[in-house]
Write a structure and sequence with these properties.
1141 residues, alpha+beta, 45 strands, disordered N terminus
């Protein structure tokens, strides 16, 4: 028996994934630099469920700035002296200026490794002998250092570049020149020497361009996102970018036991908050957010009751860093970065080389390095604007003059950056400004600074030119400390294993809270510290894994167990909710006779909380009537500091069974203080509509509250239970109204989804494993699956196989015609909404088999690779004549290349929906476009006018001999009364690019292959009409390269063109069996994932594989293309003559 139901999806919304399950994660790693990447890698490889959170986004090679204009959007400057912040929050370069100090850090997936010089230098003996250096590190330091160097793929600089030769000639005798032992860089000079198992597929070889300090635009740098994080993802780690952690609190059981209302989703130890409302649960928190980031998280957590050592923020070191700029030198320094246009004219050995390729250690205790200036750096800023000239008379005007010489092509000398690294006294200090939630810093004293300036001056005299020194006493790019490791809580924040001290705990440490980055380094190291940080992180990670195994954290599995690879996702902890309203509320009054003020932030979402049944009526309350509460409470008589809300709920219309006609606004708040105490504040306002106006105002603006301290009654403590009232004034109420933000996230569009329920899937299959449902996604406007003229269409075929079937009619379908949409809208909005509806319908953990044709295939790849649909919900993917690539025949490519689409859209004007039926009433614009379409050349002509118009617009979609007469009549006379053409501009961009791009033509999707973790089948027609078999060939090769752990197939079916793959008379014999077999194997492989041993040589084989179905008959296509061009010329001539007449 077959049931047909129609499910209306009222308004579509986009969705972002992933999320851990409701049970949270075994470990959360905050940050992805030299510390966080190591911890995420080692924990994931040990079999734990790990999630890495990164504030910045993933930077691809093409995203790094290559000129001054791009650099402006990649920098954020926070000038604390002027109170000015410029630039995006997640900019690649983060520059902080305070008093007479400047500190620069990086933000992005990979942290500082993205923009540093990549020097891999062993930790100095002086640092390891420092009294502050933890003795426990020495037990395995050399072993961890070798492991870190191997993972970073350190390679020796292959030759001496011009800059190094010049420096070697002018450096003084007091420097160790290290001539016989070239320094190593975390960079690929010879890519063939690197093992494939540890290499990202995008890794390239160094071109010696000198742009390392602005991010390598050629993927030659072995930043942590290409080393440790690649291994972490392969081991199952989930990475969420654009997620900034604010603070974390202990998930104490006592609050749940006492109130019974603040229960979290699981019994994990820690709650990691991304904002005031949303958090992720875990057993282990590993802080690796950098010196500023880690300290800020700990400061904010301390305010919420997490006891931290009073040494938090102390021990800050700038690693003795000083910088100078040498301008106008007459020496051939060759220290300016190259752009792409210059490579062909300059041989490798004459290029600038890596940013830093030599380092010279002085007997005075510091090292001097010369650096190449990237092309993206605005060098004029370093000549008298942010610096001052050492010689008198050289300032801002010198920089202007030098710039004019450069523009006019005159001889203006050569520039170079000089960098000094040494040892300071690590006496710097980090403090936290509570009102602004900002970290303030005070740099340490550098007693060698005068000696470094003297060294710069000597080099400037020998090289010639003008020396510019910074206007800041301290200029640091190598921050260390702030949360230093020590033997006890009185002298440090954590122990040598990274465990954060807790003086209130019997064990002396917070269980499951670790620091694993530069913050724990207790002293300056005297050299570029990336290897030192990585080595310390290896030590901490080793102890961390051992401790987690001993304490049975999570569902630990054997380290050799093959897990499914993880993924990189954007942003949100959960999906983007359909509707959201946010406002603020300030109430003042007294609690227990003491002044109290509540600063609340309220958030209401349609999916934010579980539906709650009304106590009086038994009905479920609307989710927008229930929300979350954040903010803080001030009651100085109880706690001197603010009491922050760590979990708050509000119900706008709660009723009591004793007073069913009275509604209450009910607040339940769990608050925490810096003293470690926790309180529950519960209150309600009366919202009775039957009260007189006078009483209504008083009751609805008065919150009757009870404040109760959470205590352990076993200790015999007195329970504090205070009552009081808080009021909101008329002025504050007006402010709350004006502060309302948000609203519906819907795009106000309705789509349809038909559902057929298989008669076998009910009672008869109760004893069997239920088969996953199938979601069918049509091509552009036409129907391909539910065919009334065919007895064996794909819908009926799947029903016979025991699958429920869902058929999506997206906004491109004629029944949902829209004037404004793109292919991206289908993938971003419609498909996620359909999959959400399917998941909601079955009310269980369900996966979906997706079958997509033509534009539907493009849209599903946009959904998956754009992060709008998670691969964990997809059982298999089958695409016909489409994929993430879209390769057209020559004639179709020429049509898309020519301005036919812009001309057509101009002809249509504001009404982009074209009537297709011959008897339809049409405007002059529609008639003109249909007339032009009839003139277009094509492979086959037809006596049916609707077929002629359709094939003139698209090209022939099928071979007439492959479909029945009844099918042909239904397709043209009944199936397509209207053709929405709004998506054609975006479709043209995709066709011209040859792969899926966003609305702006940017490659936003192919850069995320990690989101395609699923078995795939790509089918092409062997008798090419619109889309060539190269489409399926490239897709299959792409999937085998990037997701080798899954089964990927490709089929080319002779005799079929485009749409006739789905609607042909013989489709059920020649095409459908391939899809059925693919889905059947996916059902059998529900828990199967290939091990690396099964695809050891796959990449080598794919590297030289060619398409056996490559189209050889292109001569006819070129003839059609010439006819199209000739026709276009005639049309232009016609309109030209018409204009003169």
């Amino acid at each position: 028996m077959m049931q047909l139901t129609s499910v209306i999806l009222p308004e579509t919304s986009s969705q972002e994934y992933p999320d851990g399950d409701d049970g949270g994660f075994d470990a959360i790693v905050v940050g992805s630099g030299y510390g966080g990447s190591v911890a995420a890698c080692r924990m994931s490889m040990a079999g734990f469920k790990v999630c890495l959170l990164e504030k910045g986004h993933k930077w691809e090679a093409q995203d790094f700035p290559t000129d001054c204009f791009k650099m402006m959007s990649a920098v954020r400057v926070e000038n604390r002296n002027l109170g000015v912040d410029l630039g995006p929050q997640d900019a690649l370069f983060q520059v902080c200026i305070q008093d007479d100090a400047l500190a620069a850090t990086a933000c992005g997936l990979g942290g500082g490794s993205l923009i540093n010089a990549g020097l891999v230098l062993p930790t100095t003996v002086r640092a390891r002998r420092d009294p502050k250096w933890p003795k426990a590190w020495e037990e395995d330091w050399d072993r961890c250092e070798a492991l870190a160097s191997d993972m970073l793929r350190a390679q020796s600089v292959p030759m001496k570049f011009q800059n190094s030769k010049i420096m070697e000639g002018v450096i003084g005798e007091e420097y160790d020149k290290n001539i016989d032992s070239p320094i190593k860089l975390s960079m690929n000079f010879d890519i063939e020497q690197v093992s494939d198992s540890r290499m990202s597929q995008e890794t390239g070889s160094c071109l010696a361009c000198g742009n390392c300090l602005a991010g390598c635009p050629y993927n030659a740098k072995n930043s942590t996102d290409k080393t440790y994080l690649v291994s972490a993802i392969q081991a199952g780690c989930t990475i969420k970018t654009e997620c900034e952690v604010q603070y974390m609190v202990r998930n104490k059981d006592d609050s749940s036991k006492e109130e019974g209302r603040f229960k979290t989703r699981s019994q994990r130890r820690w709650l990691v908050f991304l904002n005031e409302f949303d958090y992720i649960e875990c057993d282990i928190v590993i802080l690796s957010a950098g010196v500023f980031g880690t300290a800020k998280i700990l400061f904010q957590s301390q305010l919420r009751g997490v006891p931290i050592s009073h040494r938090l923020g102390s021990g800050l070191s700038c690693n003795g860093n000083s910088v100078a700029y040498l301008a106008g030198s007459s020496a051939p320094l060759n220290a300016a970065g190259l752009d792409r246009k210059q490579f062909s004219n300059i041989p490798f050995h004459e290029r600038p080389g890596p940013s830093i390729s030599s380092s010279y250690t002085s007997s005075l205790g510091f090292a001097i390095q010369s650096a190449v200036i990237p092309t993206a750096y605005p060098s004029f800023l370093f000549k008298g604007i942010t610096t001052y000239g050492w010689q008198s008379g050289y300032g801002f005007l010198y920089g202007v003059t030098d710039w004019l010489k450069h523009v006019l092509g005159l001889n203006h000398g050569q520039d170079m950056v000089l960098n000094a690294i040494g040892h300071d006294d690590s006496s710097g200090k980090l403090t936290f400004e509570k009102d602004t939630n900002r970290i303030l810093f005070q740099p340490p004293h550098d007693h060698l600074l005068p000696r470094k300036v003297e060294a710069f001056q000597k080099l400037a005299k020998k090289l010639g030119g003008v020396l510019f020194m910074p206007r800041f006493r301290s200029t640091s790019v190598h921050l260390l400390g702030g949360c230093i490791a020590s033997s006890d809580v009185s002298s440090g924040v954590c122990n040598s294993d990274g465990q954060v001290f807790d003086k209130t705990s019997p064990t002396g440490v917070h269980p499951g809270l670790y620091i694993c980055d530069a913050s724990l380094i207790p002293c300056s190291v005297g050299i570029n510290p990336c290897l030192t940080i990585t080595t310390a992180s290896e030590h901490v990670s080793r102890r961390l894994v051992q401790d987690a195994i001993k304490k049975n954290i999570g569902n630990f599995v054997d380290i050799n167990f093959d897990k499914k690879p993880g993924s990189i996702y954007k942003g949100k902890m959960k999906r983007i909710f359909d509707s959201e309203v946010v406002t603020t509320e300030i109430m003042r009054g007294q609690v227990g006779g003491m002044p109290c003020t509540a600063y609340l932030k309220l958030k209401f979402q349609t999916s934010s909380v579980v539906d709650k049944t009304n106590n009086a009526t038994g009905e479920k309350a609307h989710p927008l009537l229930r929300g979350k509460v954040g903010g803080y409470i001030e009651c100085r008589a109880i706690e001197m500091d603010k009491m922050y809300i760590i979990h708050g709920e509000i119900d706008l219309c709660e009723t009591d069974i004793r007073t069913p006609y009275t509604q209450y606004m009910h607040y339940r708040l769990l608050v925490a203080a810096s003293s470690g105490s926790r309180y529950v504040l519960e209150g309600r306002k009366i919202m009775n509509p039957y009260l007189l106006a006078l009483y209504a105002w008083r009751e609805s603006t008065t919150l009757n509250v009870t404040l109760r301290k959470i205590t352990d009654n076993m200790l015999g403590e007195d329970v504090m239970n205070l009552k009081g009232k808080l009021h909101i004034s008329f002025l504050e109420l007006l402010k709350s109204v004006f502060a309302l933000e948000g609203g519906s996230r819907y795009d106000k569009f309705t789509i349809r989804c038909q559902h057929w329920e298989c008669s076998h899937s009910g009672r008869q299959l109760k004893q069997e494993k239920r088969k996953y449902p199938a979601l069918l996604i049509n091509g552009y406007a036409t129907e391909s699956y539910c065919l009334p003229t065919e007895q064996d269409d794909l819908v009926r075929t799947f029903l016979k196989d025991g699958h429920d079937v869902w058929l999506l009619h997206a906004r491109v379908h004629w029944s949902n015609s829209s004037n404004h949409f793109s292919v991206e809208d289908i993938g971003r909005l419609d498909i996620p909404a359909a999959i959400n509806k399917i998941i909601e319908f079955y009310e269980e953990t369900i996966k979906v088999h997706v079958v997509a044709h033509c534009v539907g295939g493009l849209a599903i790849h946009i959904s998956l690779m754009g992060g709008h649909v998670s691969a964990k919900h997809i059982a298999s993917l089958s695409c016909t004549n489409s994929s993430m690539f879209y390769k057209l025949t020559t004639s179709s490519s020429v049509k898309m290349w020519l301005p036919l689409v812009p001309m057509s859209m101009a002809i249509l004007g504001n009404n982009n929906i074209l009537p297709m039926l011959q008897e339809s009433t049409t405007s002059y614009r529609h008639w003109l476009l249909k007339s032009i379409a009839r003139l277009m050349p094509r492979y086959e002509r037809c006596t049916c006018d609707e077929c002629e118009v359709f094939s003139g617009i698209f090209g022939n979609a099928f071979w007439h001999e492959n479909i029945s007469d009844t099918m042909h009549y239904w397709m043209n006379k009944e199936n397509l009364p209207r053709l929405p053409m709004a998506a054609f501009p975006h479709l043209r961009k995709i066709c011209n690019a040859g792969f899926i791009v966003d609305n702006n033509g940017n490659n936003s999707y192919l850069i995320h292959p990690e989101r395609m973790a699923m078995p795939t089948l790509y089918i092409s027609g062997g008798r090419t009409l619109l889309v060539t078999p190269e489409t399926s060939f490239l897709a299959n090769k792409y999937m085998k390269l990037h997701q080798p752990g899954y089964r990927h197939e490709r089929v080319v079916i002779d005799g079929f063109g485009h749409s006739d793959l789905m609607i042909g008379e013989k489709s059920h014999e020649n095409v459908f069996p391939h899809i059925q077999k693919h889905i059947e194997l996916a059902e059998e492989e529900r828990s199967v994932f290939r091990t690396p041993r099964e695809f050891k040589y796959m990449k080598e084989a794919l590297a030289w594989s060619a398409d056996p179905y490559e189209d050889e008959g292109r001569f006819g296509s070129w003839i059609f293309s010439l006819i199209i061009i000739l026709l276009l010329v005639l049309l232009f001539k016609f309109f030209f003559l018409l204009g003169f007449s």
